[in-house]
Amino acid sequence: MAEKKEHKIITSEAAKTAKNNGVAAQQIAQSTVGLRVGSVVLWIVALVAEFFAIKAILAPEDDPFISGMAPLTAGIIFLVVDLIAVIAGSLLWKKANHIHPASEKNALTFWLWNNLGVIMTAIAFIPFVILLLTNKNADQKTKTVGTIVAVVAMLIAGVSSYDFNPYSAEEQQEILNMENATSTVYWTEGGTVFHIYSECQHLNNSEELHQTTIDEAEQAGKERLCKTCLKRHEKEAAEAPAQISEEGQSALEEATETAETVKEEVTEAVEE
After folding, report:
1. Whose CB among 188, 217, 249, 260 lies 3.0–4.6 Å from 222's, allowing a Cys bridge?
2. What is the CA radius of gyration of the chain?
3. What whole-number distance in Å separates Cα of residue 138 and Cα of residue 246?
């Protein structure tokens, strides 16, 4: 068997640009610092809102946390703020994860990283429920209504925060490899075909390869794609993961509307 030669690859300027235009390549080039910081800030806001919700709902009727507002109503308002903040933070976190994903080599770490929003949701509501139910001074109506609102809000936030379609660093690398394989092609001075894999067996004896766009290859007289490369590409494409769809932009708005509806219904029940 002939020894495979080391290739000297001559890359055109158009090919260099094409390699940076793929989805995965653009993701890797993006920074997620702003998204991560935004998530943390919003989660802190959610925890502060939870603290105020506890203070408000447990305040005595004759000395309300917010002047002129019933403790139960004030507590529900802060729970709504808590809900909106925790969902917004989770959506930003998920968006960052779909740009710079974590590795799935450690299943537990991968799950925790992708669903940190779910954990923050629990922290943002469970303490409220525990403190409300164990408080001896709160009346039964306040405990019942407050707990129902908190649990409903927690369920809404939990579903919105959970990543049902997590994206891994390994999947991103596979997509990047596919993009690199198809954005540019390789060819030699002789022959009439171009290749999408520089390690194609038909290039083993070639010392110098041109890496260009397909248009440039065709202009150089390369009429078609190598059949061996085509078969390999079709096999890899069938095995590659589907591209991750973007998060629906209406998720936060829907959650906010739901929370507002819950607040209005409970407020009406309290007034009655």
Report:
1. 217
2. 28
3. 44
Q: Give the bridge partners for 194, in sequence order.
A: 225
Each residue's pLDDT tens digit, 34-79: 999 999 999 999 999 999 999 999 998 888 888 889 999 999 999 9
Contact in structure between 186 and 216 (CB atoms under 8 Å): no
Specify the amino acid at residue 91.
Answer: L
Task: Give the CB-side neighbour count of residue 240, counting CA atoms within 13 A.
Answer: 17
CA distance 22 to 69: 55
Measure CA 24 to chain center: 14
Question: Can you tell me which residue has the tokens 């139960």?
Answer: 72
- Predicted TM-score (pTM) of the model is 0.66
Helix (H) or strand (E) holding 10: strand 8-11
The H or E element containing residue 106 is none
Predicted confidence (pLDDT) per residue in 72-105, tens digit: 999 999 999 999 999 999 999 999 998 899 999 9
